Amino acid sequence: NPTIRLQYIRALRQAGTTSQARREAEQFCQAFPQAGAGYIELALLQMNNQGQPPRSALDNIRRALSLPMTHQDYLVTAHLVLGHHTIQVEKFAEAVDHLSYAIEVSRGLPGESQTKLVEMAQAYYLRAMAYHRLAQKGLALADIDQAIEMAKRCGREPMLKSYQTFKLSLTSTP
What we know:
Blueprint: H1 2-15, H2 18-31, H3 36-47, H4 55-65, H5 72-88, H6 92-108, H7 114-133, H8 137-154, H9 157-172
Helix pairs in contact: 1-2, 1-3, 2-3, 3-4, 3-5, 4-5, 5-6, 5-7, 6-7, 7-8, 8-9
C-alpha cells in the first residue's frame, strides 16, 4: 500500500534514520514512479537540512509537481521548498507565487495540526521576506503578522522571536 509506505518513510525521516529512509524512498519511487509524494520525500532526504537544496532535490520536487498529487500536504512542502530556494537565488516574484500556492493549499487542508501551523507560519514569513525584497512593505507587514500569529498558536518560541525581529526591521526602515 503506497500510503502506508509513505507514512513509514516520513516516520523514518522524522526519527532521523535518514539512510534507511532514503533507501525506502528510492525503492518507493521505483515501485510507484507516478506517485509524486515519494519524490518529495526523497528530495527532503537529499536536502538533509542544508541551506541550499542540492540540484537533485530540486529536480525531484519538480518531477513530483509534474505528476498527479493525491497527498495535498506534500504540495505545501514542495512549494515551501521552492519558495525558499527562489528567495535564495533572488527570484522574489517567483517565490511569492510558490509561497502563495503553499498557503492556499494549506488553508484547504482539514484540521490544525502542529505541522500545518508551522508550515503556514514559514510560508507567511518567507513570503513576507519576498515582498520586502520586492519593496511591497504593506504586504510584507501583513504576512509577517500572520506568521507571528501562527508561531504563537503552535508555541514555537524561537520561531516567534525570529519573526518579531524581522517585523521590527520592517517597521524601522522607511
